[in-house]
Fold:
Amino acid sequence: METLIGASKILAIMSSFLVFFSNSPVKLAPPQMGINDNQVIVNEQLLYGFQKELTELIHSGTKVTIRFELVLRQENEIIKTCEISHSVIYDVAKQEYTIICSEKEKIIQTRNEREMRERMSNVNTAILSAKEIIPGKDYCLRVMAELLPIKIKALRGGEFLIPALWDYKKPGAECRVVLKP
Structure:
């Protein structure tokens, strides 16, 4: 079993280097921002983030983490910055994904790959109390996503990093909204 897992990791690593040097279609949908329950809520979706090579790497049991960076500005002043991370680990024996979303502070387990992709790709979080905004002012939200370097454990106890499976530039998206509490 260990040999099979080791072989699948090697295949995933070799194919991921091909993706590393190619153009990545990964992007973010335009973010949405509004007020709900006296909180400024942000919704964002990562598009095309799970290419075949990344999915194969996840299925080998390697932990994968996506970090989202949110920056809220009012004119030239930064009002709030926030980092959110989504991690997934696949248990090969149980055929089960364990997903950790930092903004929800809970662990989700599923056997459904589609659900795993959706939970890893979507951010829906409160970033600020509505009391902290100035009604009628223009706010700009900038969101960026980054696939963190992936650690691969070698068969003899060592490890090495795959620097990126996405393009060199972090996918980013921006929206401008006039918030009214």
The helical segments are 2-20, 52-59, 113-121. Confidence is low (pLDDT under 50) at residues 1-22.
